[in-house]
Write a sequence for this structure.
């Protein structure tokens, strides 16, 4: 990035490192003084912004892997342009997600021993951890064999294709298991049911497409490279794909609201009122619906505004909206106490949690900047 | 023609190898899920040392398996006078940290009268906390007591999310998930749990549900008992006689943000 302007590049790196180390400091503070001092989670809201950020990163990673696989796995030629970059982004967002969840667990180092030697195959979190580790393995293999040239390793394209196909299967299983982590819990009426695993797959495509479009257009802008006409038409096609996915997501959201309000179902009704009219309503209406869905939808709907700039703005807004969607999903599910509580629970991210989230984004940006410089991420020459 | 034959044979080979790998993986996972029993990491039916928390410390006691017993509790809410000695005794026994409770008494106001609902972990037969723990740190012992293995717990808080009875919390000192344990170190030697022992009106009765002559079994036969949140399917082992039923004031919560804003919030601002 910033190939022409050395000074701006170094400032960018230093800013990212500063944010990253602030996040690391917050993590160390969290483990030193205990999570109940440093984070705002409590017995009533055990899962806070760190879990929702983890969900955000991991869902984006799965989405980017699935979309990048359109090219070299499913054979849609024009998506091969973004294959390598997409898989690389999928790897680094997954790493950022794992970092955030590592900060959330009370004793993360025990995970590696007891997840292997004392597994509970009834637990959705165990399957999620196992499948996401497999997924990471497969997309790393896929990226490696996508990057080496044909002369160096004869069958690299076929192996990349095989790894990609397995990666897609593992990604979909891992991802719906992540949805099942929420969907299995009968105690929480907002999450319970088969919809979370299914909806997460749709949301993965939306999140992945938005992030891919945003990062690709930003990269070409900042490195002052010329986008080839195929890439330009691919970006416009991303715009159309995004518009379709936003439309479907809005349809889901609308029915979720209607079902949650109709007949005042116990639990769901209180959560919906809190989301629509209570303290979370600014985040819901402002960020999730208006900024995150409606404005990008109308930008991308009309061909006149569906330019590269339009796709850039729309995808950025969608990313912000998706981050809010994850936050609302995780927090709203814990709003009502499970039995005999008097009031809604309260939660707002603490400073340290926000620093960790910022640090994770900075880590992503830093890894991408380094990768962009030293790895062959450009359009594949097939 | 030759190309199609090669394609077909390659396709068959891929399917066969895929099935081979899939069955191998499936068998490995099925066998591997029992690896904790093979390695002796999870409890089996032999004497085992179990830890219990007391404030800053972790003590141990030796537990001999009693598969013939099934411990349960009956709580008579009509006898309860709301003195909360049980909550205090439980806190004393384990030095439970400030702001957390393993057992408490829920006070429900209704028509200017107060009703009392003693609450604790239900030690469910089909415990959600046992089902969801990724490392089997929450487990159900052979005598029906649901315990936590403090060595294995990674603090993911899935059990706290899943419990429908607010029984669990993260212990701030040991950083693991903790809850009422039916005083497992006391019942090992034949004592009663601390809350049962101290109750001045015998509102809490503890015993062996499998024994037809125990007090709990007799109470279960002779009284109409209820369990909390039966629709969750957890099959709890703490049975209530005449509990106050108005313990889900969720509709009142929503009125605060709905059209009718004249509703004042309730007096007790706690979810305990």
């Amino acid at each position: 990035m910033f190939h022409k302007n050395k000074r701006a590049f170094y400032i960018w790196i230093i800013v990212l490192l500063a944010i990253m180390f602030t996040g690391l400091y917050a993590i160390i503070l969290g483990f030193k003084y205990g999570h109940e001092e440093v984070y705002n989670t409590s017995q009533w809201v055990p899962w806070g912004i760190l879990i929702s950020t983890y969900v955000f990163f991991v869902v984006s990673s799965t989405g980017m892997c699935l979309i990048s696989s359109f090219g070299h796995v499913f054979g849609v030629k024009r998506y091969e342009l973004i294959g390598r970059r997409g898989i690389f982004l999928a790897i680094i967002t997954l790493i950022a997600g794992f970092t955030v969840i590592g900060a959330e667990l009370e004793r993360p180092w025990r995970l590696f021993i007891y997840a292997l030697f004392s597994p509970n195959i009834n637990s959705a979190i165990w399957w999620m951890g196992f499948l996401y580790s497999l997924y990471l393995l497969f997309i790393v293999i896929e990226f490696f064999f996508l990057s080496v040239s044909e002369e160096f390793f004869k069958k690299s394209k076929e192996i990349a294709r095989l790894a990609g196909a397995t990666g897609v299967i593992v990604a979909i299983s891992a991802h719906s298991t992540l949805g099942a982590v929420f969907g299995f819990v009968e105690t929480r009426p907002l999450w319970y049911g088969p919809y979370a695993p299914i909806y997460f797959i749709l949301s993965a495509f939306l999140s992945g497409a938005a992030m891919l479009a945003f990062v690709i257009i930003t990269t070409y802008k900042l490195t002052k490279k010329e986008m080839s006409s195929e890439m330009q038409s691919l970006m416009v096609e991303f715009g159309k794909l995004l518009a379709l996915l936003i439309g479907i997501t809005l349809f889901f959201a609308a029915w979720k609201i209607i079902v949650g309000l109709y007949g005042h179902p116990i639990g769901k009704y209180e959560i919906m009122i809190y989301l629509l009219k209570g303290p979370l309503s600014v985040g819901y209406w402002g960020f999730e619906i208006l900024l995150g869905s409606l404005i990008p939808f109308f930008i991308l709907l009309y061909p006149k505004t569906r330019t590269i700039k339009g796709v850039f703005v729309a995808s950025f807004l969608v990313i912000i909206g998706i981050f809010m969607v994850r936050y609302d999903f995780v927090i709203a599910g814990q709003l009502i106490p499970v039995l005999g509580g008097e009031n809604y629970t309260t939660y707002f991210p603490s400073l340290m949690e926000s620093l960790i989230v910022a640090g994770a984004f900075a880590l992503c940006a830093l890894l991408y900047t380094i990768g962009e410089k030293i790895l062959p991420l450009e359009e594949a020459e097939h | 023609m030759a190309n199609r034959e090669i394609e077909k044979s390659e396709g068959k080979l891929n399917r066969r190898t895929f099935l081979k790998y899939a069955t191998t993986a499936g068998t490995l996972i099925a066998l591997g899920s029992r690896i904790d029993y093979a390695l002796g990491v999870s409890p089996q039916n032999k004497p085992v040392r179990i830890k219990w928390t007391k404030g800053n410390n972790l003590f141990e006691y030796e537990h001999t398996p009693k598969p013939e017993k099934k411990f349960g509790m009956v709580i008579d809410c009509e006898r309860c006078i709301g003195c909360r000695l049980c909550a205090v005794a439980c806190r004393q026994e384990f030095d439970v940290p400030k702001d957390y409770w393993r057992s408490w008494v829920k006070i429900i106001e209704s028509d200017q009268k107060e009703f009392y609902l003693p609450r604790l972990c239900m030690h469910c037969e089909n415990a959600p906390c046992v089902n969801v723990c990724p490392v089997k740190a929450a487990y159900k012992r052979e005598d029906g007591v649901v315990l936590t293995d403090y060595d294995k717990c990674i603090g993911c808080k899935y059990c706290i999310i899943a419990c429908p009875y607010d029984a669990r919390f993260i212990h701030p000192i040991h950083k693991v998930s903790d809850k009422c344990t039916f005083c497992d170190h006391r019942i090992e030697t034949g004592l009663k749990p601390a809350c049962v022992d101290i109750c001045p009106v015998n509102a809490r009765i503890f015993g062996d549900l499998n024994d037809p002559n125990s007090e709990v079994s007799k109470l279960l036969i002779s009284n109409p008992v209820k369990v909390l949140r039966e629709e969750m399917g957890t099959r709890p082992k703490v049975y209530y006689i005449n509990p106050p039923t108005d313990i889900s004031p969720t509709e009142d919560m929503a009125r605060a943000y709905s059209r009718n804003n004249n509703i004042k919030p309730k007096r007790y601002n706690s979810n305990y």
